[in-house]
# Entry
Amino acid sequence: MAAAARLALLLLLLLGCVDLLQGVRYLLHCPPGWSYYKLSCFKYFRQLRSWDEAEAQCQASHPGAHLAWVEEPREAATLGKAISYHQRTQPVWIGLRSPRQRSPCRPRHVGRRSATFERRGWARGPAR
# Structure
């Protein structure tokens, strides 16, 4: 009976280690200097670029990389915290535009994702 209990405990510990190791595998998946969030890696670049230039720089920095795509408020908060480690005083624009702008916005496609994004809480930008 004690041997069966020890075996069951050992199996539970091994299953826990496998779960832990899978998390480590994803953390080790990110290149040096990149941040990890929900199976994705993020990197902050200081240089000011247009959207197209920034996308090209991002793609050149690592195979398969694209500009950040924020899908939920929690992800936006996490990305904001990661950016604040690099830049504390200046606002950061990640390429989103309000569809209410007077200038037309052509849709962007990153991989299979459309650029349409439902977002509230926009910061004020420069007057155009």
User: Anything to note?
Assistant: Residues 7-24, 102-115 have pLDDT under 50 and may be disordered.
